[in-house]
Amino acid sequence: MSILVLAEHNNEILKEATKKAITAASKIGNPVHVLVAGADCANAANDAASTEGVEKVLHAENSQYKNMLSEPISELLIDLMSEYDYLVSAATTNGKNILPRVAAKLDVSQISEIISVINGKTFQRPIYAGNAIATVESSTDKNVITIRTTAFETAKDSKSTAEISTIAIEKNPGLSEFVEEKVSGGERPELTSAGTIVSGGRGMQSGDNFKLLESVADKLGAAVGASRAAVDAGFVPNEYQVGQTGKVVAPELYIAVGISGAIQHLAGMKDSKVIVAINKDDEAPIFEVADYGLVADLFDAVPDLDKELGKIQK
Amino acid sequence: MKILVPVKRVVDYNVKIRVDKETNAVDLNNVKMSINPFDEIAVEEAIRIKEGGKCDEIVVVSLGPEQSKETIRNALAMGADRGIHVKTEHSPEPLLVAKVLAKIIEKESFDLIILGKQSIDDDCNQTGQMLSALLDCSIGTYASKIEIENDSFVVTREIDGGLQTIKLAKPAVLTTDLRLNEPRYASLPNIMKAKQKTIDEVDPADLQIEMQPKVVTKKVEEPPARIGGGKVESIEDLVDKLKNVSGVI
Fold first, then answer.
1. What is the rounded CA–CA span in Å between residue B169 and residue A21?
2. What residue segments make up the domains of chain B, in order of their start?
3. Tens digit of pLDDT for each residue in A36-51?
4. Cβ–Cβ of A135/B217 closer than 8 Å?
5. Which residues, other chains included, contact B118 with Cβ-Cβ below 8 Å and sequence gap of 6+?
6. At the topology level of CATH, where does B2-218 sit?
7. Of A196, A212, B42, B66, whose Cβ has the fewest other Cβ atoms within 10 Å?
8. Do B248 and A239 touch (CB under 8 A)?
9. What's the pTM value of the predicted model, to 2 decimals?
């Protein structure tokens, strides 16, 4: 049961999501090999080699792998998969973009965003934005799997170093070209990887009032999110939306302010570790999932919270 | 230019789904069904491209039971030109959907195929990518902006932490993200007009595709319930609990 993990990295180290994928791969079987493809990524290959559970690292150095475009990386993976039974990746935008293309070429289904490994052929995965959990069984010899990173631990550093083998496959279908990349958010973390999220709903009454949340978010190093109602009302852009049709998040701390708790919002955040709800309607459904609910007018409570957090910082 | 937009009929995003313990599946009886929200964005984008004078015909295709025709009509009322209904009892897995779509594209060629990035029922996020593999063409997932050039598409994609812009050779498969556009409501005259538009029926048996799934669902369960309902009296109390009980700040 040989397993190949597709790594994501910044040329220096592996992304944490990949280290979680390595943990999931180790649960499926062994040996676990990791593909580090990129341009100037030798250090990342070394990092992969010193990660627990990794038996061998395949290092593919080529400028066409620099931006993880689907077509060239897929070609590389399709060739490599003649030697492996499983292809595993974190369900990041790159993993989700690339793996199904490989699966279709191998004529197998992909099993998306697994949250647990029952055995080598049976996995659990959330459906309906996590409102149901499906247990699925594969009938094929080869399998392509993405993992939901919030469900697996980060693989630790290893005391020993795995073998690094340099590979050279340079097929490029030439269908796509990288133009540019813009990293958004400035100092604030992005929603899907933030440890803390402060979200506002229709109760915020205006886009201007989101400044109250931004101040709290800055003190917590948090990302700012919103409910669909707040997005539909035009308070904030679409990219803020947490929910079934927006981003599905699971931070350590989720603070919902002026959000009533529509089903579609709850589906996007209910796996957060600790949920705080601030709402003046004590019957709002958000309180049913909140660990700490505060029934209060947000325009009093949020500035107070901001002040209290300021005190802690000092 | 011809655009194909595959659409799926799914449980409406506002419905709280229920797991039926007897059938071991999500209960779909008497549940409101709608067009998958991401597919609706795909239909809207195709219509905007056509309104911009860069597309001659928009064809909408759906796999599913008889009622999937309503979903197709919905897209026709928004402004698509013609429909294809591939009649299947259930909704097949993404690989099979991609195979069916590839066969349809073999029969009449398309320059652009726009799909939703995922359907909100099985949350697979695979069909577009798989279709691009079967067609050996370029793929642009999670599009938030699409620009059309002579023989290529310039696509801005939502990626973790930002936006990536890529240039794709024609033909291409694109999948939509939320930010691409806001779909229109169909007007009453257009709903009436859509009734006159053609929907061709296709029997999957005629496409010579083995419709056996490779992954089967053994069981569907409700997730463990979250125990909430805790209350605090004041902000001081809240901050104290977050710091000293939960240890999250």
1. 32
2. 2-218
3. 999 999 999 999 999 9
4. yes
5. B38, B124, B125, B126
6. Rossmann fold (3.40.50)
7. B66
8. no
9. 0.93
